[in-house]
Write a structure and sequence with these properties.
about 425 residues; 8-stranded mixed β-sheet; 6-stranded antiparallel barrel; 18 strands; about 5% helix
Length: about 425
């Protein structure tokens, strides 16, 4: 069995990279008409998993076939996005000029203090417990996303990027091109930890949070997203979570990460071999590591690339099925040290910014490269502003979700506080 490696499935085989042009599953033309991304509402009939169901849940493997990556190269030339002509409000990026994450030598890096931040008194994880680190910020903003696929409980990964909104992969909502046929019962467990003992109970130090609304790209649902087998422009989705029984938002208990445009965190210099490079941290719950019972972290250089016409970023990794939807974080930070002698954390604007989510991975060997759709402008999402949420795909989905008014309410989710950006 080829493990992950695809985290999703288009029922097409690739014989080799030389055949890519004949196998492009692209729409015949790209219209400037924006996507109409629909908000889907939980009718309150979908419950979360029991502890026993959660314990027996299986890692979700993206069913789309894996593209041939033997000829994939990182990009070094200026790489503006080709946007549809006459798209109102479209502004084409000019060579990644707004770089935000690099040091004086032009080399991206992550440097943070590694120490424990005391936990709130109501969080029941001992400082001596193995689960302690995953229950601290920012790790506790990441969790397992359990859901039902027909009769089976499966899991992906997800992270909190607004006060009550998580981001994950679109293929954790439904198979590519399946229209209104979706999975169900999404439940987010931040800082999930069970340990690798088959008898231990899952730890949920911040509880389980049931979905309230979600938005995935319309182009994902109808199968028109720019794609080449397992690689797509927009494998991402956002889910708004219900408040808890006491009426509290999840983010008030865990904190949350930021989000940003991928290209703002990549730099090209002689010291990176003139390749667009970023230092990214990926987090998630891959099934092949501790059976998906413990949160995993991967750090390393990430690179811009294209597969056919699909805009992607990739990173070396051993993450497999179950890690789908987990965040790719720029400027990852546990705690800031006290700097002296002119030291600094690099030329950065913000810490803990999600710029992608795990989508798919190359086939064998186990230590392979993982890929993510880029957060930002592309053919499906060409505008440089969607509401108050910024540019491109991630902003468009958040705008659609947060501008909705829940049934019987005159205010939007944004006005009701679900979509607060500031911690």
């Amino acid at each position: 069995m080829k493990k992950l490696r695809v985290f999703f499935s288009l029922n097409v085989a690739v014989a080799g990279f030389g055949l890519l042009s004949s196998l492009l599953l692209l729409p015949p033309s790209v219209s400037a008409k924006p996507n109409v991304d629909k908000v889907v509402t939980n009718d309150s009939s979908q419950r979360g998993p029991t502890k026993e169901e959660m314990k027996n849940s299986k890692p979700f493997v993206n069913p789309l076939p894996t593209p041939d990556t033997s000829s994939v190269q990182p990009l070094g030339e200026d790489f503006p996005v080709v946007l549809p002509e006459a798209a109102p409000g479209a502004v084409e990026p000019q060579g990644f000029a707004n770089v935000q994450a690099y040091g004086e030598f032009g080399v991206p890096f992550t440097s943070k203090r590694v120490t424990h931040d005391p936990l709130p008194k109501n969080v029941k994880v001992s400082e001596n417990a193995l689960a302690y680190l995953s229950a601290t910020y920012p790790y506790r903003t990441v969790g397992r996303l359990d859901f039902r696929n027909k009769d089976d409980w499966m899991w992906c990964s997800a992270s909190l990027i607004l006060r009550s909104v998580i981001v994950t992969a679109a293929h954790c909502i439904q198979d590519f091109g399946n229209g209104t046929d979706t999975f169900s019962n999404w439940t987010f467990v931040p800082a999930y930890f069970k340990g690798n003992s088959s008898t231990s109970e899952p730890r949920t130090p911040y509880g389980s949070w049931v979905w309230k609304e979600y938005v995935r790209p319309a182009s994902w649902a109808d199968g028109t997203d720019t794609n080449l087998n397992g690689a797509t422009n927009n494998d991402l989705a956002v889910i708004l979570l219900e408040k808890d029984a006491e009426g509290r938002f999840i983010g008030d208990k865990t904190g949350w990460l930021g989000y940003g445009q991928t290209d703002n965190f990549f730099v090209k210099s002689q010291r990176t071999g003139n390749l667009w490079t970023a230092a990214l941290t990926t987090l998630g719950y891959p099934g092949d590591s501790d059976n998906g019972t413990i949160q995993q972290r991967c750090d390393g250089p990430s690179y811009m690339t294209k597969i056919g016409d699909v805009l992607q970023i990739y990173q070396g990794s051993d993450f497999t099925g179950g890690s789908s939807g987990g965040p790719w974080i720029a400027n990852f930070g546990y705690q800031e040290p006290v700097f002296s002698e002119g030291a600094s954390p690099g030329k950065k604007a913000r810490s803990n910014v999600v710029v992608g989510v795990t989508s798919w991975g190359a086939d064998d060997p186990p230590e392979h490269d993982n890929y993510s759709s880029r957060f930002g402008q592309n053919k499906e999402y060409p505008l440089d502003r969607y509401g108050t949420f910024g540019a491109g795909n991630i902003a468009a989905l958040l705008n659609a979700l947060c501008s909705k008014k829940p049934a019987g309410n005159a205010q939007t989710y944004q006005e009701l506080g679900y979509c607060d950006k500031k911690k």
